[in-house]
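Handoff note, outgoing to incoming analyst
You'll be picking up this chain. Sequence as last confirmed:
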Amino acid sequence: MEYLDTIMNILGWISGGGILVFATWKFARRKAAAEAKQAEAVAKQAEADAEKAKAQAMLEQQNYYQQMADDLAKDRDYYKQDRDEQRERLDKLTRSMMEWKNLTDKTIDDLRRQVARNGRQLEAIRPFMCGDLKCKKRVRVAVSAEGVVEQAKQEEKKDIEPLDMNDL
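Most recent structure output, in case you need it:
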């Protein structure tokens, strides 16, 4: 019987230990399931936070690029306006230069006509010119724009003043 007691003790231990092991195993499994559920919830929250952070980063990046595009458009408008102002200034200068050229051409033509007129007048009075500026027989003449010479009536003076070079 001793064997029987020993077997019973062993069976009691096994059954008592088995119940204890079974109860421990059951509570441990519940605890592990709750921890796994909590870890899964934490992982899901972390994943949601990561997605939210990724979306926020993408939104910030989009805002940054939008700001760059707006700045670029503003700069483009500024440079367009500056270009238009420069073109307007260039057109104004071109018109001014063309007016000056036309005026200069007209002035040059007038000067050429005046030189030709002066040449005709000089040719008309050449026979009356004397190389001696102190000559007392000089006769004053008037020459029209067409080169017609008219002798000015002068009273005969004994002492005729010599002509200045400006009178020629």
